């Protein structure tokens, strides 16, 4: 049997919806096919090139690649080696451009069809077009499932966290009336290209269903037939990869008229994702079984519907690939740019969406990007609405990160512009309240609060972590997240005051740093990161004595002291660094002797949108119980070495706690 007959046999055998032998002109289809051979490394399609041809690969393996804008990299997004793999099917869409580059990884034999010739044949023989596209649709949904499984490997949003974040800070709306059905379908990006008479046919097969928040709408793998169209509310698409029952959040959908689930159509046998209501919602279910007689009697309608399903799966596949770029490389700007690039020939040159990737390039303009996305989500253009919805979903965590950044700016501004007559204690309270608002945008976990002493006036030590560059303010100042977390989320909540921090003296060029910490009334000490000062040994001892006196006075007045024994910052993986003796000598010099409360922190050096931060409070101790003679240098050195080893284990405990919080 030659390749043409093998291909038509494959297409005929794969149709479960139409009788493939019912007078269909298979010989005319076969006559359009031309055999092609490719060597390993040969390119079948090139991303963004005009989609002139469709290939069915009879044997051999191909790799699917996306071209990334930065560095001209090619990202592998899939491999296929099944017989009769379809390549270049994006030519069936209005875009008429290849969405990916497809490279042969082994020698390949393929049949090549011209898209123009196929379109002309299917216009004359729509029933044949339905059977042909049915096979391609099955492959598309298989690729979508593969892409979603790869996406979950890099997912930072398990279902439980997705629900918690969606609930935060949003008001529930009950009994919102859904829009009129006809208006909803006409506005829907899925149904809009269909003629009015056909829309009325779909409207006649609708049943309305109401779902409460948290209620499942469809389950992954279910074959319940129908087209589910969102009318009001919001739903989440969750996916469980093969061989696991754990569900991962893919995206949420809130655009009225969106098709959120479908099954029982040509090429769509079962639901590829679970759909759950994250807000009370109304969903219209179009019963495809009721439509079945009309679709069989009107093959042109059936072909139009199959083309819309092909459009829908391509949008889901495009979104999954963009999310993969975003989560795998943490390059949201690149992912959004790639998404919009694939639609640039259809999107108006005046569309503000073109500005979004550029605005995402700076923290100072990210807010402008979100303003455009929100405006375009209500656009009268279906493509703009659809792309804005995808951008909004893809950037959900980035928006939370931006809100965190804006909260940091507000805190800094409030502190440095506080009235001169406001006492430092009140400024610290103002700062703590601002950071408590900021940390609402962060995923965090605290353990060991039962170890906090009942009364203040203690020394709290922590392993100091570096700051991520995303949190740098416009004046190049970085608010240290770990120390402010200890102050605002642990001490202020327990004792009503965030405590006094020991901070380094600012360099002469660090105006923002100095103004901020001076206004909070913190104690500044010189470290190797401060400007170098020239002083005699006597002047150095005098400065240390002054520090002990000032810090001791705060402790005796019942004010907590917060400091890092390292004197500098490290990445979580390297933390803690070598300890210095100052904190422990201070504790030994104060009467009554304060408790030293160790707090191990983890992941405050990462982007807050892609991690869980953790703080573990360990049992307090007194220096007199662990260090008989604080003046004995050898005793002190051995103590600091042992404590650092112990502290390293505590930091690992904090990291495990954060990991467990992600999975739970």
Show the helix and strand layout.
Layout: H1 3-13, H2 26-31, E1 34-38, E2 43-45, E3 53-59, E4 62-68, E5 73-80, E6 85-87, E7 101-104, E8 108-114, H3 115-124, H4 126-153, H5 159-167, H6 181-187, H7 196-203, E9 206-211, E10 216-218, E11 226-232, E12 235-239, E13 248-253, E14 259-263, E15 274-277, E16 281-286, H8 288-297, H9 299-329, H10 332-341, H11 356-359, H12 366-376, H13 382-394, H14 396-416, H15 424-438, E17 444-447, E18 459-462, H16 481-495, E19 500-504, H17 511-520, E20 523-525, H18 537-556, E21 561-563, H19 582-589, E22 596-602, E23 613-617, H20 623-626, H21 633-663
Parallel strand pairs: 17-23, 18-21, 18-22, 19-20, 19-21
Antiparallel strand pairs: 1-8, 2-7, 3-6, 3-8, 4-5, 4-7, 9-16, 10-15, 11-14, 11-16, 12-13, 12-15, 22-23
Q: What do these coordinates show?
A:
This protein is an alpha+beta fold and 664 residues long. It folds into three domains: 3-124, Jelly Rolls; 152-394, Jelly Rolls, CATH 2.60.120; 402-663, Glycerol-3-phosphate (1)-acyltransferase. It contains 21 helices and 23 strands. Helix 3 packs across helix 4 (126-153). The longest helix is centred in the middle third of the chain and has 31 residues, at 299-329. A seven-stranded mixed β-sheet has the order 17-23-22-18-21-19-20, with helices on both faces. A four-stranded antiparallel β-sheet has the order 1-8-3-6. It has a four-stranded antiparallel β-sheet with strand order 2-7-4-5, with helices on one face. Strand 4 and strand 5 (73-80) form a beta hairpin. Residues 156-174 have low confidence and may be disordered.
